[in-house]
Write a structure and sequence with these properties.
Helix content: under 10%
Number of helices: 1
Number of strands: 8
Order of helices and strands: HEEEEEEEE
Distance between the termini: 37 Å
Largest sheet: 5 strands, antiparallel
């Protein structure tokens, strides 16, 4: 069993609360699913588009206003509980129109996607942003 608080716990691992990258034996270790508590200040955005995604994802707005960009379409999550699901192979990016908190669930949890950049949303390598 593990208990915690999403905001401080997420800050320890770039937002990720559960996934293959947690230590084996930790109840938060999973090879089936990844869960992220993303806290994004207004103006925060992906440094580059995610291309060639090989997982399915669900993103739910907890608070704020958050825009996701897909080829030929923008989706704005504007009210608490708004969500979007996209499948494998769907390129995407995002932008926080207001201070926002979003819950992301991705499956499966695949090694090799963990990024070294601070704004990891997709798990793909991203370019660190200067603030």
């Amino acid at each position: 069993m593990h208990t915690g608080k999403a905001t401080p716990d997420a800050a320890l691992d770039r937002g990720w609360l559960l996934g293959h990258f947690k230590e084996p034996g930790d109840p938060r270790h999973s090879e089936d699913v990844e869960i992220k508590w993303g806290v994004h200040p207004k103006g925060d955005e992906r440094a580059q588009w995610v291309r060639g995604e090989s997982r399915t994802a669900l993103q739910v707005l907890i608070s704020g206003r958050f825009r996701l960009e897909f080829p030929g379409r923008s989706v704005v999550l504007a009210e608490q509980g708004d969500y979007v699901v996209w499948g494998r192979g769907v390129d995407h990016s995002w932008y926080a129109e207001e201070d926002s908190v979003v819950l992301t669930v991705r499956w499966p949890s695949l090694p090799g996607y963990r990024a070294d950049g601070p704004d990891d949303q997709s798990g793909r390598t991203s370019v660190p942003k200067s603030v």
